[in-house]
């Protein structure tokens, strides 16, 4: 029962992957800061940070390129990757299905529809993000309401199937919007947004992204030992003392917040939440105590 209760020391088999992944993340951070169309050496960046003076590169250039353009993109990439990985790992445990990803309940399709609607209505960039976030939540809400209304004993399977139908409806809505959009202006904007990109991310986007990802990720981390019990049937998990309904609701809310806000900022980024938890599971095993933090780092 150790895997189903909180507490206990972190085993060495988990500390090693976390250490390796932390070093890789740090190396990628340094590489991403210094690389690009205009190369800036890490030494120049460090000198500017600690002394306020620049070396071979002008201080204004470092401030603009590194702190105004590259760091917001890097921060968004870390937050989106960690959030989608945590949401995917928790969904795969909750639904007991290894093919489940964060968009299984329609969050990504709903967010895509909201963004397309905002673009065709001509709202500003913040309005597009807000509509994408709201419609992502709406899509999952519709899935949960319809899944409850249908009834039946297979609750998890019912939610997954309802989510697929809801997602398909919102995808159809996106197609309708694209068919009536201006082919020279609005349609390319919708197409490029749906492709997913961090090229236009700024610090305002990072501040918009951070609270849902941090709050949702913290809730999932707090629930990780209970997600182990959810690998059994609801009756067996309840017999272990796990509040099954509360865990399901909190997991759905947390993963939906993360999925909706990541799509609102970065567009449709689909494979991270599906593949990364599997890669982490191959390394540290299925125990969510270890799986969730390693997935987020990976």
Low-confidence stretches: none
In terms of DSSP E residues, the strand content is: under 5%
Distance between the termini: 27 Å
Task: Please tally the β strands and state the result.
Answer: 0
Instruction: Encode the helix/strand succession as letters.
Output: HHHHHHHHHHHHH
**Integer average pLDDT:** 84
Question: Can you walk me through this structure?
Answer:
The chain has helices at 12-34, 42-51, 59-94, 107-121, 125-150, 155-180, 186-195, 203-222, 224-229, 234-239, 244-266, 272-284, 288-297. The chain is mainly α. The two termini are 27 Å apart.
Record keyword descriptors for this entry.
298 residues, mainly alpha
Outline of this structure?
The protein has helices at residues 12-34, 42-51, 59-94, 107-121, 125-150, 155-180, 186-195, 203-222, 224-229, 234-239, 244-266, 272-284, 288-297. With 298 residues, it is mostly helical.
Write the layout of secondary structure elements.
Blueprint: H1 12-34, H2 42-51, H3 59-94, H4 107-121, H5 125-150, H6 155-180, H7 186-195, H8 203-222, H9 224-229, H10 234-239, H11 244-266, H12 272-284, H13 288-297
Helix pairs in contact: 1-3, 1-13, 3-8, 3-11, 3-12, 3-13, 4-5, 4-6, 4-7, 4-11, 5-6, 5-11, 8-11, 12-13
